Amino acid sequence: MPRPVLVSLAMGLPGVLAGGPAVPVLPGNDSCAEILAAANVTGRFAVAVAHGIHDITVEDLREFKGDVPCAGNGVPTVNRDLRSESAVLPSAPCLDDGDSPFATPAMRVVDAALTRMDDMNYDIGTTSGLQRLVHAFHMREVWALASAQYQALAADPPGRAACACALDVDGNSVLEELRLIASSLRSAQMASSRQSSSQPRYDKAFLSTSCLRPAGRGKGALKGAADLLDLGRMRSAADWAMWKATMAEHMALCDTRDLAVFLYCTLNREAAQPHN
Asked: Cα separation of 179 and 38, whole Å?
């Protein structure tokens, strides 16, 4: 099995974003497909990870690991400033400026979501304050589910080769999915009906398709993370029922484990095991 090689993110080479740290990248997409399958990563890896990190901040990442830096943390995310030429940031930002008057995490989430609710070129764009609140708390549920699986990975960490493949965000299409989310947020019409022009470069035949969901959750799978944002206004209980059903589709246990694997590999590069 080939050894991973280090590629600098600052060099602009395939699979990387300028401005991030160096990550191991394995040559050979077929090898990565087999390695990721052996690590119980699913064929929805790119969609699951992009959904899980598209709105993440350093404050959120510190719920997984307490010493995540504000710069160079290597977790790419969609730029909340929809006017910026940089649609995707190479590292999640620090956003808590300490100005919120609220003491509890829940009220700080409310404050952050509503403070700029009139700015249609920020956060998730042309949505109401209520939709922004629902989206913010939905993401925190995703992270809470992923956090439990992240902690479990500490006892049996992914191998270095699996992490190399997980962190190849160009080769495994995580970066492409993030760009699609960013594009949907910047366009007048959300992209739930879009047909991606590119497919994940790892052969999905090698990847696990099993997906255990909590009891009572939906059975289907969304095409992409941007689908959640294409549900229209929330004005009635019937609207909320549609939102609730759609969000449940993002609660697959395998999806949150895929996210946990990506975050563990990103935040614990030095701790990755030499096997696999």
From this structure: 28
Pull the structure tokens for residue 220.
Answer: 């289907």
Q: Give the Cα separation of 72 and 92 in Å (integer).
A: 8
Q: 253: which residues sit within 8 A by CB, 6+ positions away? A: 145, 149, 211, 212, 213, 214
The domain of 197 spans 5-271
Residue 276 within any structural domain of the chain: no
Block means of pLDDT (10 residues each) for the chain, 276 residues, are 33 37 49 89 92 94 94 95 94 88 92 91 87 91 94 93 94 94 73 39 37 41 49 82 78 82 92 51
pTM over 0.70: yes
The residues, any chain, with a CB within 8 Å of residue 77's CB and separated by 6 or more, are: 53, 54, 55, 56, 57, 88, 89, 91, 92, 93, 178
* Residue pair 276/41 in contact by the 8 Å Cβ criterion: no
Which ranges of the chain does DSSP label H, i.e. alpha helix?
29-38, 45-53, 58-61, 105-115, 129-153, 160-166, 174-186, 237-248, 253-267
Residue 116: inside a domain: yes
Does a structural domain hold residue 212? yes
How many helices (H) and strands (E) in the chain? 9, 4
Q: What is the pLDDT of residue 32?
A: 86
Cα–Cα distance measured from residue 110 to residue 8, given in angstroms and rounded to the nearest whole number: 38
pLDDT score of 230: 60
- Judge whether 89 lies within some domain: yes
In order of 31, 156, 201, the CA distances from 152 in angstroms are 25, 7, 28
State how many domains the chain has.
1
Question: What Å distances lie between residue 166 and 11, 128, 159, 226, 266, CA to CA?
Answer: 19, 35, 10, 21, 9
